[in-house]
Amino acid sequence: MSATATATARPDGAPGALRHRDFRLLWAGESVSQCGSAATRVLLPLIAVNALGAGAFTMGLLNAAAWLPWLLIGLPVGAWTDRMRRRPVMIVCNTVSAALMFSLAAAAWLDALTTNQLLVVSLLLGTTDVFFRAAYSAYLPTLLPAEQLADGNARLQTSESAADVVAPGAGGALAQAGSAAVGFLADGLSFLVSAVLLARIRTPEKPPGGGERGPGQKALAREIRDGVAFLTRDPFLRTILLCDAAMNLFLAGAQSLSIVFLSRTVGADGTVIGVLIALAGLGGVLGAVLSPRLARRVGTARAVLLCAFGAGPFGLLIPLTGDGAGLLVFLVGEFCLMAGIVAGNVVIVSFRQAYCPPEMLGRVSSGIRFVMYGTVPVGSLLGGALGAAAGNRDALWILYAGNALCALLLLKGPLRSLRDLPVPEADAAR
After folding, report:
1. pTM of the shown model
2. How many Cα neighbours within 13 Å face the side chain of 238?
3. H or E element that contains 152
């Protein structure tokens, strides 16, 4: 059975992943937290642009700060989380993130918010995100059997995409109304809700595996090398990673400019920007919902190729955006781009979780994120520099064209000749 096989169902008809109480708690907590974060992703840059006067390069710095920790600590964090129980790490990360958001709410309430504070908080939130994601990716197989990972990942991704539909409009409206404190406070509370729900999970977590481990730096370095070696030797993981990292580079640059482009170049107000991003998020919902069905119909390897080659060209519509009816061009381009990205991500994450040995998953996942997310601060600075030098619209042409061409990298590996990505024999026999 492939990693995207249909989940088994309960007698009452509930899909496989939802039959597990603890998965439902994880899903509910992440859904609430994603809603708060999705609103903040629109609110924070709009506050930076409209209230604090940030330009294209400053916006690139702000986006880069959130992702810089992946370059600094991404690899050792993966090895650390393979040594620790993952759920406590996730609870601590959510609690710290809540405190950081409350600090922004207090500063906004006192009219003392500065660009420097936004940069520092973005950097610290990015640090907690490194730990959380490393633990989170390796934790899901604790709650679900391998044949239900695709269903679980699809539901988690659907919730994230749904949050991108529901929440950005609220973030834009809050920015337009000057109510940043309320938005930051709500995001902080959403992190606390997620922490509480995680604390209620009962599934026992196995002690950290992976054989004998020493306590010192040499042992840690050896574990990191083992994870990197596994990743670089495997042709499937290596090929997908190369393509995703290159795409992230260009998309990060484009995303760092999207708010300032819509606000200053196109002339849209905060509420309209929030609504546009929310509606475009429906593409992500569609991609998450259809991904397992697409993978079953055409095969997991072909689904990855189809999503990469089919989505990228739609990004080239975004630089054509104008005011009035011209905003529909942005909506169509972003909607289709998000649908393809999310659908491909569900297939890839489910494959990786079923394919990698459990004791290596934290290190492999963090190694992948180290490369993928490590390109984001570089891409953000590239986008900011291009926007400042060539103008926002011309910069977006360059960045989205680069993203579309990255799909060609998938043709250099084994995916082009396969219908399905491989899964371990033990899982296939289930």
Report:
1. 0.70
2. 12
3. helix 149-177
